[in-house]
Amino acid sequence: MYMLSRTSGRMLRKGIVPNRLTSTSRPGCLSFGGRREYHPIVHTFDHAATWTAEAIASIHNAGLPWYLTIPLVAAGVNFTFRLPMQYYARSLAAKRNQLTPLVNAWAWRHRIQEFAAAPGKQVDSHARNLASLRAIRSSRRRLYRSWGVQIWKSFLPLTTMFPFVLASEALRRLSGVSVYMGLVTVGEKASAATSTAASALVDPSLTQGGLLWFTDLTVADPYFGLPLLCTAVLASTSWGSLGIDRIRVLVGAGGSQAGTSPMTRGFQRVLLAVPLFPLVVAHLPSAIFVYWLTSFSLTFFNDLILKRIFPMTKARLQPPNMGRSHVRSYLPASPEKLKKKQGSA
């Protein structure tokens, strides 16, 4: 046993590695030979994308043309994942809208408390406003938590991005387009193995599966019509949900950002840049843009329908204006003012 350990150590120092050490028993581990295999998450996504591509191809093989198969897949993803999540997020927003009078009442109370905290002292107005804003945000979080409508729940619809990306990756594999910079595989051997498996999924019928000006679904749109349409639909959905006034505040063209959390402002700024994404990746196959255009259009119509189901009515109780011109003094007047008032009477 001692001689065996000495022999093994001598072999490792000389760079001689046994064959049984050149592979790993666990995915995602770096082997002695320097070859990195699949990460478990990438491995799972790879199998899911392959299964999705085979499912889409089976729908086409049932007799549907590609220009109907791809929108049908987008509709299935929409009604299975996106529409329920949009319904949930819209219902949360409607419940928060009903709590607005209560939130405004607490905001009024906090502002009055800050104004009355030091009646005879000179207090910095900026520091007083910051203190009142912190108290208002704390009360709003407490109220939202009590009614189960926390802000973080509004981000749950982002989970629908996984089936969206999965279907897009499946269409990319059916089109036979390579991934930039090896996003799916890592390692030379793993990349070669995956390229061989992905080439078996390529469907030549996609070259004649389109219509109008994009008959070949395996190449990019030569006229940039599909990317521009995707950008227009995305802009109408994301920018329309923000409103012109809110967009001006986010880009710094005017208005105040008081009353919104930093997380909400960051998410809204991301929404401003989202419509430009299809133009950045305009080199992708037309099959992906057909899927995106259908998916974005269905999201737009989902939003229109949900606005009718959950209309946002204006709050009846608005926060008061605590400006100096609207604040009346209830302290007794000075003797000089009383004499002038009596003399004029």
UniProtKB/TrEMBL annotation:
The keyword Transmembrane helix applies. The chain crosses the membrane at residues 270-293. It is a multi-pass membrane protein. GO terms for biological process: mitochondrial respiratory chain complex IV assembly; protein insertion into mitochondrial inner membrane from matrix. GO terms for cellular component: mitochondrial inner membrane. GO terms for molecular function: membrane insertase activity. Keywords: Membrane, Transmembrane, Transmembrane helix. It is found in: Membrane. InterPro entries: YidC/ALB3/OXA1/COX18 (IPR001708). Belongs to the OXA1/ALB3/YidC family. This is Mitochondrial inner membrane protein COX18. It comes from Clonostachys rhizophaga.
